[in-house]
Amino acid sequence: MNRNREWHLHEDRYFSPDPAQRSIASELYRSVAHLPIISPHGHVDPGLFVDENASFGTPADLFIIPDHYVFRMLYSQGIALENVGIPRRDGGPTEKDPRKVWQIFADHFHLFRGTPTGVWLADELNRVFGIGEKLSSQNAQSIYDQIEAKLKLPEFRPRALFKRFNIEVMCTTDAATDPLTCHQVLRKSGWEAHLRPTFRPDAVVNLLTPGWNDHVKALSSASGIDVTSYKDFIRALENRRAFFKSMGAVATDHASETAYAAELSPSEAETIFQRALKGMAGPEDAGRFTAHMVMEFARMSIEDGLVMQFHVGSIRDHNDLIYQRFGANMGADIPTHSEFTRNLRALLNKYGLDPRLTLILFTLDESTYSRELAPLAGHYPAVKLGPPWWFYDSINGMKRYFDQVMETAGLQNTAGFNDDTRAFPSIPARHDLWRRLSADWIAGLLVRGLVDLDDAHEMILDMAYRLAKNAYRLP
């Protein structure tokens, strides 16, 4: 069909069709719609903000090339990543013309119908960039021109959008060995925005990480401690955590395929570490060492006050060809079964009652919500549940989360919302979706008589703003 259609973002989108619930949801949403955004966990590159006159580049650079939610869907329909400009590790040929990349995106924009990515893209294009027509094959180049023109304007620079989006605080995710140069430059620049780093040590903890020894050498260099033993390793990690905290970090972030946590004796930890230094560690060593380090990081969080985030349940880089050709984080991470009750028992019995620890749990296995995670969060003072993560950061994912978690865990044992995104312009859309779905869920409680209107207004304020701020101990 060769025609362009106007965007129509209904002002009460995502709310229940029941008139009573819809009316209350609308009222609750509007009470928090313009609150500042707390973005305590994400992957936006801090380098975007170093130069106050920096640009996002082309529309393809902004919307497609850095966003695996977008190019993952295109790849699933047989479109080669080279054709949408994704750079290859070997420097092999990829499409360099951003207009051709954009045209492919527009030709396949229908793939995002009914998906959370489609919701975010509609919000970004319409509300952020003022695009009045739905993207299509026919209008692809004219819309490209509109976006390109706006990206050249001062009000569409990254720092300007940070202010326009009303972001109160945003946390990046940074390797344990990162010198945080961008954060240091931003501090010295006098820019008043609150951009904080987050300590991510996975590359030095997972003994099977490609180039693990090189990462350990980088840890030695960054910490000033020659890491030749397990004790040195722990000292170097504690040194880096202290540096991150001095740069404003409030949290650490850890990812593992399983939630298994169990202590090794000092001699066992040293033996495994030495095998790893010699390139002789195997999968069993790696699993035991990671489980031990989960315990160690909980101890460190109690001592230094950094909130501990634990993301569980993804088999990373499932597609070997994509990993070999393009590297990690290329949309080929697949959820897997998880277990928490037995796997976390040792950690929670040792540290779960300590008020100094905040352990925020995330999962890609929704079957654990009501069976394990909600009861754990509803019992152990240290545990809070993170919001629906990754594939479940969606309308139905949020609804399932509310239904499966809240009755048992209680609202105050959850951590509010974080956008966990690399796509900076999508941040307002993601938070808006959470606020709308939260308002609709609370409105449902109200019309069924579970809470009253005063309770409802307190709850929506918590979900939109206060829970995240409190969970991450943000000032």
Give a quick set of tags describing it:
11 strands, uronate isomerase, domain 2, chain A, 3-stranded parallel beta sheet, alpha/beta, TIM Barrel
CATH superfamily of the largest domain: Metal-dependent hydrolases
The profile of the biggest β sheet is:
4 strands, parallel
What structural category do the secondary elements indicate? Answer: alpha/beta
Beta-strand percentage range: 5-15%
Q: What is the CATH architecture descriptor of the largest domain?
A: Alpha-Beta Barrel
Q: CATH class of the largest domain, please?
A: Alpha Beta
- Which fold does the CATH topology of the largest domain refer to? TIM Barrel
How many discrete structural domains?
A: 2
Mean pLDDT score: 96
Helical content stands at 40-55%
Distance between the termini: 53 Å
Instruction: Give the SSE string.
Output: HEHHHHHHEEHEEHHHEHHEEHEHEHEHHH
What's a quick, concise take on this entry?
The chain is α/β, with parallel strands linked by helices and 475 residues long.
Report on this model:
It is a single chain. The chain has 475 residues and is of the alpha/beta class. It has two domains: 19-54 and 155-471, Alpha-Beta Barrel (TIM Barrel); 55-154, uronate isomerase, domain 2, chain A, CATH 1.10.2020. Helix 1 (19-32) packs across helix 19 and helix 17 crosses helix 18. The protein is globular. The strands form four sheets. It has a four-stranded parallel beta sheet, covered by helices on one side. Strands 1-2-4 form a three-stranded parallel beta sheet. It has helices at residues 19-32, 59-63, 68-76, 98-107, 116-128, 140-151, 158-164, 181-189, 202-205, 212-223, 230-246, 266-277, 283-304, 320-326, 345-351, 368-377, 395-409, 427-447, 453-471; strands at residues 37-39, 167-171, 174-175, 195-196, 199-200, 251-256, 307-312, 314-315, 334-335, 359-363, 383-385. The longest helix has 22 residues, at 283-304. The model has no long low-confidence stretch (mean pLDDT 96). Helices cover 47% and strands 8% of the residues. It starts with 18 loop residues before the first helix and ends with a helix.
